[in-house]
Amino acid sequence: MPYDPSAFPPFAVTVDLVVLTVRRHALCALAVRRGEPPFQGRWALPGGFVRADEDLTQAAARELAEETGLRAHDPAVPAQDNGAHLEQLATYGDPKRDPRMRVVSVAHLALAPDLPAPRAGGDASNARWAPVEELLQQGGYGRDGEPVAPLAFDHAQILADGVERARSKIEYSSLATAFCPPEFTVGELRRVYEAVWGVALDPRNFHRKVTGTPGFLVPTGGTTTRQGGRPAQLFRAGGATLLNPPMLRPEV
Amino acid sequence: MPYDPSAFPPFAVTVDLVVLTVRRHALCALAVRRGEPPFQGRWALPGGFVRADEDLTQAAARELAEETGLRAHDPAVPAQDNGAHLEQLATYGDPKRDPRMRVVSVAHLALAPDLPAPRAGGDASNARWAPVEELLQQGGYGRDGEPVAPLAFDHAQILADGVERARSKIEYSSLATAFCPPEFTVGELRRVYEAVWGVALDPRNFHRKVTGTPGFLVPTGGTTTRQGGRPAQLFRAGGATLLNPPMLRPEV
DNA sequence: ATCATAGTCGTCTGCCTGACGATAAACACT
DNA sequence: AGTGTTTATCGTCAGGCAGACGACTATGAT
């Protein structure tokens, strides 16, 4: 099968981003409002075209920086204290997913600590953090009473896949720390797990588990009382990336 | 950011396949010999262009059928007794991965039972099952004494990613049964795990574990002695797709 | 001073796993 | 027919880990 330039159809290739964070005990995703058709005025995942000289990961990192100001974590530098975790999620290429032309989208998943307000070209009303349940529910009404329209394109599916990836990946990796600030307490980490999984965890067993897993947490020596109650030790993420044995997600 | 057709570069989109099977106690992958430049004469993963009206999964299933005659498993029909497991693996889009033009390849992973000979356009010398270690080793000499050239393009990386996916996925899913014929014994399933992981497992503990996991195996009532020794019960894959608790891969 | 809140340390029990002995049922020899 | 070899299958036991939960500690709020 020779590579005849006329033998293959041209595609547009984009990256779409599932950017997740934990705000007010809820797992939230970044959504941007579409300014032009199709799906004008509807919420969508941030994304854009891959440039001619760009790797897919570079394109995703560039879009992430444009939308949030976050730098992507360099996987070669663990325990970096700024920047978000970024990884490829999956690729979506249904011929009809974009009504205008053939677009293949390489979706990426980014995990970030709680951030200030999002920005999308400086216009705050065109970008927001929304709880993932709200973005994924079909129809109905959101918390503000406004009717909820489904996400544009196949972005509901992409978001659902990204959420599922995050939920399963914090089981066997230290990725939950990507939702935390550089220094955090065991309780803050536990609230991340509770928000992502949507369950309540026993604080005592959770404490025993995470402090007993070698390389997961490194004490910094400091303490904080920002959550109220007894001061809690502060930790940084340790060098371990894979947790063995894993954290166990409680049964449904 | 409007969709100006002149605002994005055109890409070629291909699917590449990591087709794995277990032959003679070794994890093997399907490789095809390239008939034209670049990398003419070198081994590569099977693959081809995505057509204009095709979904990515359809394209992968079509290539799989062309190369092996296998029909892909329909995920909606569990416990299907013919066809291979097929899932998307990852997407590779380095600007220089193909020296001729910008190609984005959506790699897929297929798992199949031991098959007769592969076919590639009817020419058997242009397709073969090779142990993955042989395909992944850089330089050196293969079992037949011929010098081993690395796989074409970035296919060594793709193959390595596919093998790693398979190794981890049989831990927590029933996917190892995809390497087995429709009816199989516990010993045959154990040899799949041993080949994929490259370890030896205790037959007694393995038997206890897999027969004690609800929904993993369903006895068919028959027995076989094709492995020699005492006749073994035959099983089919049960409805369970996720194993909880998972199979544990022994430490390095 | 008392209460509420959150963090931390222990205990106990049940389940799962790894290590390994023992038995069973076939085949290949002699 | 007997003996050895191979593979399958059942059982036992000890160690480790997780869930349930009691107890104590250290802060701020009333």
UniProtKB/TrEMBL annotation, chains A, B:
Highest taxon above the source species: Bacteria
Record's keyword terms, sorted: Hydrolase
PROSITE patterns hit by this protein: NUDIX, NUDIX_BOX
Nudix hydrolase domain sequence ranges: 10-154
Record bears the keyword Hydrolase: yes
One MF term in the entry's GO annotations: hydrolase activity
PANTHER family named in the record: ADP-RIBOSE PYROPHOSPHATASE, SLR1690 PROTEIN
Record family assignment: Belongs to the Nudix hydrolase family.
UniProt protein name: DNA hydrolase
Origin species: Streptomyces cellostaticus
